[in-house]
Structure formats: structure tokens, C-alpha cells
Amino acid sequence: MKTQIVRVPFETHSRLKAMASASGETIGEILAKAVESYRRELLLEDTNEAFSKLKEQADLWKGELDEREEWEGSLLDGQSNHE
After folding, report:
1. Which residues lie closer than 8 Å to 81 by C-beta, 6 or more apart?
2. d(Cα 66, Cα 72) in Å, to the nearest integer?
3. pLDDT at 80 exceeding the cut of 90
4. 27-55 and 10-23 helices cross at what angle (nearest 10)?
């Protein structure tokens, strides 16, 4: 795997070292998890903002709700929850 140098504040590096020591993971692994977590957080924020804008347009929001209702019927496929 290729690596790259990233400069972080001293305090952040100290926290990363402590976390790495406690978890047995490398600083790189911890940073990768943190970045992925933050990426997902931003995605959810963007999604929530898009839905808020959609709700402001009554006709489009009604279309969204109608489509959700149609999809609900697709779950009734005769399968149990464990299949």
C-alpha cells in the first residue's frame, strides 16, 4: 500500500498514538477509520439537506411518499424474516 505524509497538530498525534497503543491498531488504520466515519457523516448531512429541500416542494414530496408506499408492497414476497 502506498502511503503519504500528513501533518497534524501535536495534540492530535499524541491522541492517535495513545489510541493506537490502546487498540493495537496502527495510526494509519485509526485515521482511515476516522476518515471513513467522517465521510459517512457528511453523506448523511447532505442526504438530510436534500430531503429537507424536497419536503419544501409539496408536489415532489407527495411523489416521494407515493413511491415509498408502492415499494412497501414489494416487501410482501411471502418470505419470512429469516429466509
Report:
1. none
2. 10
3. no
4. 110
